[in-house]
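To: structure subgroup
Subject: Chain for Friday's discussion

All,

I'm putting the inputs and outputs inline so they're searchable in the archive.
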Amino acid sequence: MSKPITIVGGGLAGLALGIGLRQRGVPVAIFEAGKYPRHRVCGEFISGRGQRSLALLGLRDKISIAGARVAETASFFSGNLTSPVKPLPSPALCLSRFVLDDLLATEFTKAGGDLRTNSRWNRPFAEGIVRATGRRIHGIADGWRLFGLKVHARNVQLKADLEMHFVPHGYVGLCRLSGGEINVCGLFRSRTTLPDLSTHWRDWLAGPADSSLQARLAHADFDAASFCSVAGLSLEPNRASAQSEFSIGDALTMIPPVTGNGMSMAFESAELSLEPLERYSTGKISWAQAQQTIAERCDATFQPRLRWARFLQAALFRPALLRITLLVGSRFPGFWPLFFSQTR
């Protein structure tokens, strides 16, 4: 009889792993503190090898049918500096988490998985238990508090499928979703106690006066019901081999949102875990061996892109370096594809 796997957290990584394990006949239970459908702070932008992971799980076509929009172009804005519209080196998929998480939850239950919503895990992480709970909460890092905001909007005209707007205290990404919606998602930092984000989120997401972001959102019709926020973020890269728990997705490590690779890494970490967990479930290897194998695979896959992303994230919060980066990116055609490829 196969040993069961318990996954704590029913986000992208947890649900994708659960679906893959059920496809291999492994008994799986997922404990999720929330319920579906729900909005999440997310760029809603799947770019990179994660699309291959979805295809291997038989999910890519289903995501397309559910309304995923293909993104093929990008543009960048900082102060009075605007980059030309550039083709993405490889197309991305854009789909609301409200739709995507619900689709994955449905596929997991269809595959015979045991999905327990509104269920918080309050037991130790022991053998047979995978942490997929999303980001690990951190307070202040180097004097800064990092937090993310997301809302959907209509009546927003974009020049490209993806626009990145850099503002004094962070950056905001705008991407086209299906049905005329735009995802407005930002990462910000503050040295002071955070305001009530439930009432002041427009002040952060709309951008400073006379900015290209404020102009872009001047006539936006925001869907207040889609607003969500998350605080206590840490973008310090973590190694899987240094952790005692078996973690995937953001619970393992977060890549700076500006790279547009967070969703992909969630799906990739699930794919990398499938074969070792199946071997553990069927008694071919021990839990320690499965965890070590997966940690080595995740570190080999993610550490190079995390190093590049860390440099990029640091540059974005230094105005002079940000301006140089954008100028170089505008004048040298190979610069943008290089960073794009190295963070994937």
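Points worth raising on Friday:
The two ends are 38 Å apart (CA to CA).
Residues 67 and 178 are 6 Å apart (CA to CA).

D.
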